[in-house]
Amino acid sequence: MTNQVYNFSAGPAVLPKEVLRQAAGEMLDWHGSGMSVMEMSHRGPEFISIYKQAEADLRELLAVPGNYKILFMQGGGLGENAIIPMNLAGCCAQPATIDFIHTGSWSGKSAKEARRYAHANVAASSEASGFTGVPPQSSWNLTPGAAYLHICTNETIDGVEYNFVPEIDPKVPIVADMSSHILSRQIDVSKYGVIFAGAQKNIGPAGLTLVIVRDDLLEDALPICPSAFHFKTVAEHESMYNTPPTYAIYIAGLVFAHLKKLGGVAAMEKINIEKARLLYAALDADDFYQNRVSHEFRSRMNVPFFLRDESLNEQFLAGAKARGLLQLKGHKSVGGMRASIYNAMPLEGVQALVDYLNEFAGR
């Protein structure tokens, strides 16, 4: 077993080593406070300073406009599948209609959960093609006056990533689940009404969920929305209405500062393009491996692939583990393999995987 390990898990995922070293050094005593961040009151001056810096750094990294609130919440992506409709489906006549573009497992889960609170219209789906891309916008059957349009801009399981921002009625907000590619590429936040992301892929440990919501959408909650998940309430209390996931916010803040030192999101996007190019080139070299996603919609973050001879799957995974290439088994719902190459995965890790892919294929 090699001493060098590269973790390709889809989440909870690899974190920057520099961040982990800093957190380890501050574990028992944060900045001379005599306390670990885990022990701090979320209302104390020490943690408030951590929170405010994290919020400011994230706003800078994503160029979040001033008319958007950044919320640090709990519940993960699955929780937001309920929290979002409870916050936005009170905007129009009841029952409200929510449009969904079904491009894989996560957008499908979002539509299923939303049906508890509103009518969910699947305006387009790529299920018939095996989720190999995003249906052309000209085929979308959108609802006039919908509460919002929900898209998953990067499907973690299926490896499908949007390469465009939908152009729809500006009165209908776009809600984007960006859990598995936030901070990996530049985005125009102003094109969306709500962006949400579980932290455990590209930001930090599990337990934290980021929500970026436009101010004018804070008044549209259903009466049944719990106060702890009501965007307006959370915003008014600066994410401190209840005890937030303090340590996860602290780690996220370290990651944000780390990304700024590396040159921000634009610099990370260039690296991510190169990592994805390198990996897909190895998978496409011959028919030993197969990625089934249309080239224009291939994810830069989550790369599912299959061996031509799937009887070799266990041998492939055992050999990868022996070389320190971990967590390459695909999601149980689709099988095969999956390499998640988030921001914290170095180019050297992708090269090590490519070398193994070539070796195993006998190239």
From TrEMBL:
Residues holding L-glutamate: 43
Domain Aminotransferase class V, first and last residues per copy: 5-353
Names of required cofactors: pyridoxal 5'-phosphate
Positions contributing to pyridoxal 5'-phosphate binding: 106, 156, 177, 200, 242-243
EC number: 2.6.1.52
Top-level taxon: Bacteria
Manner of cofactor binding, per the entry note: Binds 1 pyridoxal phosphate per subunit.
Keyword annotations of the record: Amino-acid biosynthesis, Aminotransferase, Cytoplasm, Pyridoxal phosphate, Pyridoxine biosynthesis, Serine biosynthesis, Transferase
EC class name: transferase
UniProt xrefs under PROSITE patterns: AA_TRANSFER_CLASS_5 (PS00595)
HAMAP family: SerC_aminotrans_5
Protein name: Phosphoserine aminotransferase
Taxonomic lineage of the native organism: Bacteria, Pseudomonadati, Pseudomonadota, Betaproteobacteria, Burkholderiales
